[in-house]
Specification:
The complex is a heterodimer of chains A (750) and B (164). By secondary structure, chain A is of the alpha+beta class. Chain A is 30% helix and 26% strand. Chain A is built from 20 helices and 29 strands. In chain A, helix 11 runs parallel beside helix 19 and helix 15 runs parallel beside helix 16. The model of chain A has no long low-confidence stretch (mean pLDDT 97). Chain B has 164 residues and is an alpha+beta fold. Chain B folds into 2 domains: 76 residues, Ubiquitin-like (UB roll); 69 residues, Orthogonal Bundle (DNA polymerase, domain 1). In chain B, 32% of the residues lie in helices and 15% in strands. The termini of chain B are far apart. Classes of the chains: A alpha+beta (750), B alpha+beta (164). At the A-B interface, helix 1 and helix 18 of A face helix 1, helix 2, helix 3, helix 4 and helix 5 of B. Bound molecules: FE2/S2 (inorganic) cluster (2 copies). One FE2/S2 (inorganic) cluster (FES) sits at the interface of chains B and A.
């Protein structure tokens, strides 16, 4: 019975295909509905809020503003203390509502609570707010000038400004044959999970229960405790089915603080489900600009990089906004052996919706920068994309990059050669060349990535065997689409050598799972699976002890294989898994239960992806026809699920590279519909080929896996941009590449 | 239909959903999707947008697929509606449902009910669609997780199962 390495079908699909899934908005509970009054201004002083008329609307129960809710809060939203140093950031903890002024279009200033959602909306229309408009700060350049300050208390718009330097950068530039300017820009994105976020809060008898579309129920429990001054033991956070997140649901919104506050104040359950527009305001992502230069030798060897990275935080710090400013610079040398690098990382506040992390969080940005650098250098020196990489890839693994990030295992050059061959890169190149001769505008691009995945510091797992021999796995990870729950069941079923149908995996309820970090950063299978594997091994030892007791034997004499315990000396003695499980419950024993914490740091998946694009010469619209991936992700637990991660990430990469851009108007309003923000549909979907390394390099984790959740969005934008460059024969340093840019480039060449 | 109502007044809506007749008094502005979810408790139909773009709310109304976020409950008066909850017969999954499971055609599952209902309509109209026809027929349904390839495979697979 080996499940690891098999494309085992997802265990919990049936509820999703039959309409029995339960996302937070599907929970049936008599609760008040919430609608928010939102600012039409990007920056304005709040003069007066009049709620009198709103309270007269039939069905409206209450209308709350800052003065009602904020005094209940002892703190507000702040950066992620698990990974970020609070001292590195200048910020004001965000409360439920702004007290003095609004800082982005769509910022909530009041909440209407009503018996149904239609009445709540009616109430919103009747709230009048007097504003005194202020000059908004809409761009990072404006913010840097510090002429208009967004958070007066901070006296500056600069939220983060930490230079990072390694090696001897000046010497590298002195010794260079050439210094090449480089630029890499990611416009603002919107993660857009299909399930908009939502929350139901119920407070009764001093206990707070929160049903919450989140990736991190335990972290949120501790944040709720801190902010509302409650004991964690009185708070239960339940994560129901979550309809996608991509990092954007490690995010505590002002709206959500308001909902919890209102439920405590009213002593009634209160619910809020974001509309799509509200979801789009809830989490923006990326928006960063790198400008710098690179020192190279004529043979292509890169000696050093220096530059400045500017990032947008939006109007407020979020839990994860700071991840990018802190981690991008540290990964800027990518998989290459570049020892001299200097990056100043500056994050600013602007009067725009707040930025959070989004699939890959910092690794996509860093990879885009370094891959733009490497490809630009190749073009400037007349080298091809494979050669330039061969000359610079790190060759000694493990490799510690100049900023101290350790890449644990791999064969970077070997994988490059393998990938190029397996993905048919040169054949595609040749094909594209032929097609171009016929007048078709097609191109083929590739890029390389190494990332860090699995992020510690630890994860929890608990395994119980019930009296029928069935196994319950409580995982601290929080699957919300990845199918990693099935992967965990595979790991546990293999470790216990039992049928996978005996295994059930549960997660996401703080009353069920005592502690957890959650799911993000491609960590579930690797760190969550390792914790589960250790717990499973302990459970098996316990089971052997029970068998030994039954036989009055020493535990060393008990053997176990495929669901059957045998006695080493006496082959006639046999007990099945189920019999031992039952025995463990006899004599008033409490049965078998083990838990484990697995502590570890990051591991490093890496790979090469290739894309084929085709451009319509009249419209300039680019389409990715094919997307091919070759990844070394260590041990692959479930190939079909892993491929699914590549497909989904690649689709988002297509979006980032070609179509998706959060538009902010001159008055600062974010385009909040799918007419403003184009999410790829089935028509834009390429054909994917996903290949995993045939001789993978394992991670040091017990599962030997590395993680695959983000790879394609980490490297994909660089891959697709390179393919467009190949098609158009022009340079593009910004995502998304818009049709008009492509048309202009095509015109220039004529 | 010609249902007229005064402000604040409720109107009677009678619909047959998954073979069962329901009668409710609702506000004339209530959307069909809210009617299905909030009045009838059929929460399998999801809401993913405010602009009729995502298809999460797709149901079959009088034999045609509609985005139930863009139909008023009163417009559905007298209609015959099929939702995701009505697809499996006697707890036997519909071949489309089975094909989605077998082809890893879902991840978070949020788009899935809409995808399946739109597939149901597509295959009713065109039992043997080409890949281009599938892409065209489902392009009004957004999935943010799967990258679509496995959904396309599931639709082909389902078409095969339903023809045989
Ligand atoms: S909810 Fe109906 S189309 Fe999006
Ligand atoms: S499976 Fe998540 S949106 Fe399609």
């Amino acid at each position: 019975m080996t499940y690891i390495g098999q494309s085992v079908k997802r265990l919990y699909d049936e509820k999703f295909v039959t309409g029995k899934s339960t996302y937070v908005d599907d929970i049936s509970i008599p609760a008040l509905y919430t609608a928010f009054v939102r600012s039409p201004y990007a920056h304005a002083r709040i003069k007066k809020i009049d709620v009198t008329d709103a309270l007269k609307v039939p069905g409206v129960v209450a209308v709350f503003t800052a003065k009602d809710i904020n005094p209940m809060l002892r703190g507000g939203v702040r950066p992620w203390t698990t990974y970020l140093n609070l001292q590195s950031f200048r910020y004001v903890e965000r409360k439920a509502f702004p007290e003095d002024k609004v800082r982005y279009v769509g910022e909530p200033v009041a909440m209407v609570l009503a018996v149904d959602k239609y009445s709540a909306r009616d109430g919103v229309d009747k709230v009048t707010v007097d504003y005194e408009p202020l000059q908004p700060v809409l761009t990072m350049d404006e913010a840097l000038k510090n002429q208009v300050i967004i958070h007066e208390e901070l006296k500056t718009n600069i939220a983060y400004d930490i230079p990072l330097k390694a090696g001897d950068v000046d010497k590298a530039f002195k010794e260079a044959d050439k210094v090449i300017p480089v630029e890499a820009i990611n416009e603002r994105l919107i993660p857009n999970p299909m399930e908009p976020r939502g929350i139901v809060a119920r407070y009764e008898g001093g206990n707070l229960t929160v049903w919450y579309s989140t990736q991190v129920p335990h972290y949120m429990r501790s944040e709720f405790a801190r902010i509302f001054g409650l004991h964690e033991s009185k708070i239960r956070v339940i994560m129901p089915d979550v309809g996608g997140a991509f990092g954007s649901k490690v995010n505590l919104l002002a709206e959500e603080l308001a909902v919890i506050g209102a439920s405590i104040r009213l002593g009634r359950p209160v619910r809020w489900t974001a509309t799509r527009s509200e979801e789009m305001l809830a989490s923006n992502a990326r928006h960063n600009e790198f400008r710098g230069e690179v020192a190279v030798k004529n043979d292509g060897k890169i000696l050093g990089i220096r530059g400045k990275l500017v990032l947008d935080f939006g109007a407020y710090v979020t839990i994860t906004g700071g991840v990018q400013s802190a981690i991008i610079p540290m990964m800027i040398t990518g998989p290459y052996d570049i020892r001299n690098a200097e990056v100043e990382s500056i994050a600013v506040y602007t009067n725009t919706p707040p930025i959070t992390m989004y699939r890959g969080a910092s690794r996509p940005e860093a990879t885009f920068i370094i891959e733009r650098i490497v490809s630009t250098v190749a073009d400037e020196l007349g080298l091809d994309d494979v050669t330039i990489r061969e000359r610079n890839l790190a060759t000694q693994l493990p490799y510690t990059n100049p900023f101290g990030i350790r890449y644990d295992s791999g064969d970077y050059v070997g994988l490059l050669k393998k990938a190029v061959e397996k993905l048919g890169y040169y054949d595609l190149k040749k094909w594209a060349e032929e097609e171009r001769k016929k007048g078709h505008i097609v191109g083929v691009g590739m890029a390389y990535y190494v990332e860090i995945a699995s992020f510690g510091p630890w994860e929890y797992a608990e395994i119980r065997v019930d009296e029928n021999g069935d196994v319950l796995v409580l995982t601290g990870t929080t699957p919300h689409g990845q199918g990693s729950d099935t992967g965990l069941a595979q790991i546990v079923a293999d470790a216990l050598q039992i049928d996978i149908s005996k295994v059930r995996v549960v997660w996401g309820d703080t009353d069920q799972v005592p502690m957890s970090m959650g799911t993000y950063g491609s960590r579930s299978i690797t760190i969550g699976g390792s914790a589960a594997l250790i717990a499973a091994n302990k459970v098996l030892e316990d089971m052997k002890k029970v068998a030994a007791q039954i036989w009055n034997a020493d535990v060393q004499e008990v053997q176990y294989s495929n669901g059957v315990f045998t006695h080493r000396a006496d082959p006639n003695k046999k007990l099945t898994w189920d019999e031992v499980a039952r025995a463990a419950y006899s004599k008033h024993e409490p049965g078998i239960k083990e838990s484990a914490i697995y502590e570890s740091d990051v591991t490093s998946p890496y790979g090469v992806h290739v894309a084929v694009v085709e451009i319509d010469e009249n419209s300039g619209i680019a389409r990715v026809l094919e997307y091919r991936a070759y990844d070394d992700i260590g041990q692959v637990i479930n190939p079909a699920l892993a491929e699914g991660q590549i497909h989904g990430g690649a689709m988002q990469a297509v979006g980032q590279a070609l179509y998706e851009q959060a538009v902010i108007t001159e008055s600062g309003a974010l385009g909040v519909t799918y007419a403003d923000y184009f999410i790829p549909t089935m028509v834009e979907a390429p054909k994917y080929v996903s290949v995993f390394a045939d001789t993978p390099h394992f991670s040091p984790y017990p599962t030997k896996s590395k993680g695959v959740g983000e790879a394609a969005l980490i490297v994909g934008p660089a891959v697709i941009v390179r393919a467009v460059e190949d098609a158009v024969k022009a340079r593009f340093n910004r995502t998304p590449i818009k049709p008009e840019e492509i048309l202009n480039a095509l015109k220039l060449k004529k | 239909m010609g249902v007229l109502a005064n402000k604040g007044e409720k109107v009677k809506v009678r619909v047959r959903v998954n073979g069962v007749w329901y009668e409710r008094y609702v506000s004339p502005r209530m959307l069909l999707v809210d009617f299905l979810r909030d009045e009838l408790g059929l929460t399998g139909t999801k809401v993913g947008c405010d602009t009729t773009t995502c298809g999460a709310c797709t149901v079959i109304m009088n034999g045609r697929s509609v985005k139930s976020c863009t139909v008023l409950a009163v417009q559905a008066n007298g209609a015959d509606i099929l939702t995701i909850e009505g697809l499996a017969q006697d707890s036997k999954l519909h071949p489309i449902q089975q094909a989605f499971m077998d082809n890893f055609a879902l991840q978070c599952g949020y788009c899935t009910p809409g995808m399946i209902m739109q597939t149901y309509f597509l295959l009713k109209e065109n039992p043997n669609p080409t890949e281009e026809e599938i892409r065209d027929g489902l392009h009004g349904n957004i999935c943010r997780c799967t990258g679509y390839q496995n959904i396309i495979n599931a639709v082909k697979d389902a078409a095969g199962r339903m023809r045989s």
